[in-house]
Amino acid sequence: MEHLSHIEPINGSACLAQPEVLFLADAFSEFISASAKLETSYAKLQLEVAHLSHELADRNSALKASLAENERVHRALQQIVASMPCGVLVVEADGAVSMINPEARRLLDLGDAPAEHLKSISADAGIDLAGFLKRHTTAEEEQEFCRASSTGKRWLSVHNRCLFRGDELAPNRRRSTQQSILILRDVTVHKQAEYERERARKANAISEVATTLAHEIRNPLASLELFAGLIAAGGEDTSEWVSHLHAGIRSLAGTVNNVLSFHGLGFPALTELDLANSIRSSVEFARPIADEAGVSLAFIAAESAVQILGNSSALQQVVLNIVCNAIRHTSKGGQVRVSVRSVRKALKKKPGLAVIEFTDTGSGIAPEHLAEIFRPGFSGTGNTSGLGLAVCSQIVKQHDGAIRVISTPGSGTTFFVEMPTL
Question: Which pLDDT value is given to residue 1?
Fold first, then answer.
């Protein structure tokens, strides 16, 4: 019987190492699983990268197309601006000119000279565009300039359009000017047309003046000639004829002044004056006309001096017109009264009013005529030019005043002329 050298079998150690093998097998299995997951994630990542690459390529393609379209639109806009019939200048906030079209160069006679800054353009063109833009940096404005060009005087209308930089969602925040666009238009033809229209208007006005004067003066001149002949022939009492002559001359003076005042373009020079003294003198100027008509003419002055800013000659025309109208519509033996007073306002800070009141005992004004009496050419009887009260209204407005009337047919009329006092 053979004896064994070992009590236990020779492969007993392998059996003892089996747990380590199992551990290694588990680790290897986990490694294989992680590798599979990593491979799957890598595949997904590759797909995502491919998708992003395609999307980036599409966006790059769209961006290139957009840039090409923007360039096309930019060139089209440049062509449009270049072919516009008006001049265009784009001015930056510092005055640098970033764009100027050919029409602007032509209107400003710049030729091929560099147009880098608005100040240099203003100096070359001879018009203060830089000053105009400086005065109107926050609002749209328009101004006309006259400049001497190679073809003569040229009128340019310059319009300013401001482009602002700021938060549109915060309107209360102060916005700053980023750019200004100056639009230039040649308005020389319009100015020439206005000049021609003004010349035609003046010529027409002169014609109207001549026609009106011829109509208004013809009859009084015949009367004056008659009175002058009677005075020259002599007689027992020529004082009455002299009075008639004075009245006729002053009536003619009033007619001529009415026509010239209505058709004139001037504005009366206003100076400080005592209203009562001025009106008293005007009433005395009209007294021969009242005496000739057999109408009593009275003047009542305010107790204290009434100072206004006015023109004595213009106010005399107002008095003469209203008083002559009153005398014309007042029967012999009637009365015309002129008074001056002042009215203080409740608030001391506001100026008071000077009131000139004209009251007569004449035939009055028909109610349907009250709204028309200040209209030029309106005459209730058709025997006058209809300019007297229109001139009165014009002169009173030039004195910052107002004129109103109340009348009762058959009882008389009262005119109120109100002007601010000093």
Answer: 46
CA atoms of 54 and 37, how far apart (whole Å): 26
Alpha carbons 365 and 404: distance in angstroms, whole number: 13
Closest CA to 121 of 140, 138, 107: 107
Distance from C-alpha of 348 to C-alpha of 350, rounded to nearest angstrom: 5
Structure tokens of 295? 């109408």
Rounded Cα distance between 235 and 345, Å, is: 58
Residue of 187, 255, 233 whose CA lies nearest to 391? 255
Cα 74-78-79 angle, rounded to 5 deg: 120
Tokens read off for 403: 């004129």
Please report the pLDDT score of residue 169 as a whole number.
44
Q: Is the pLDDT of residue 254 over 80?
A: no
Residue 403 has pLDDT above 60, yes or no: yes
Q: Are strands 296-300 and 141-149 parallel, antiparallel or unpaired?
A: unpaired
Closest Cα partner for 279 from 320, 239, 246?
A: 320
The candidate with the shortest Cα–Cα distance to 364, out of 405, 317, 418, 321, is 405
Please say whether the beta carbons of 183 and 159 come within 8 A.
yes
Checking DSSP bridges between strand 412-420 and strand 141-149, what pairing results, if any? unpaired
Residues in the chain: 422
Residue type present at position 49: V
Among candidates 209, 284, 214, 292, which has minimal Cα distance to 248?
292
Residue 229's pLDDT band, with cuts at 50, 70 and 90, is confident
Sign for the CA dihedral angle at 109, 113, 116, 122 comes to negative
Give the residues across from 100 on adjacent strands. Answer: 89
pLDDT tens-digit readout, 49-87: 999 999 999 999 999 999 999 989 888 887 888 888 899
Q: What is the rounded radius of gyration, in angstroms, for the C-alpha atoms of the chain?
A: 49
The amino acid at residue 130 is A
